[in-house]
Amino acid sequence: MKLYFGNTVTTVTTIMILVLLGFIGESIANRTNINYWGRRSLFLLAYGLTICCFAAARDGLDKTIQNTIDGSCAPGVFPLISIPNLIGCVGAAIIIIAAIATPIAKSQHMRQIWFYVMSGGITMKILVMEIARIIVRSELI
């Protein structure tokens, strides 16, 4: 539990991730009643970016980058060139592509599809990062 509720940043990040996954789940469950997929995509993008910033702070990405540049501090949880960071970048690229394509889409059906693409990128990032944190944590124990 300390991995997810060990301090303020990890607790807030965990709660925000759960809310985001709930939002995605609720959107999928109520898809027939949703009229404006662009608004949902905008919320998903903004809230997802906020969570990404919290998760980067939680995992010490800034420390990893600083350590790689000048070695003046200890690195964060993951090395700069690692599977979680690379898959995180791929997920971010998927999210950016979907965010650009959503307002260009002419129909709500296409915006719905881009919402699912963006949700898939976000879910992939969450799964990879959280599984990697569990693996790294179990190696440290």
Structural account:
By secondary structure, the protein is mainly alpha-helical. Helices cover 81% and strands 0% of the residues. It has helices spanning 2-5, 8-29, 37-59, 61-70, 83-104, 108-140. Helix 2 (8-29) runs antiparallel to helix 3 (37-59), helix 2 packs antiparallel against helix 6 and helix 3 packs antiparallel against helix 5.
Itemize the secondary structure elements and their pairings.
Blueprint lengths: L1 H4 L2 H22 L7 H23 L1 H10 L12 H22 L3 H33 L1
Count of beta strands: 0
Radius of gyration: 17 Å
Listing every helix as H and every strand as E from the N terminus to the C terminus, the arrangement reads: HHHHHH
Low-confidence stretches: none
Number of helices: 6
**Mass-distribution shape:** elongated
Helix content: over 70%
Instruction: Report, as a whole number of angstroms, the end-to-end distance.
Output: 14 Å
**Beta-strand content bin:** under 5%
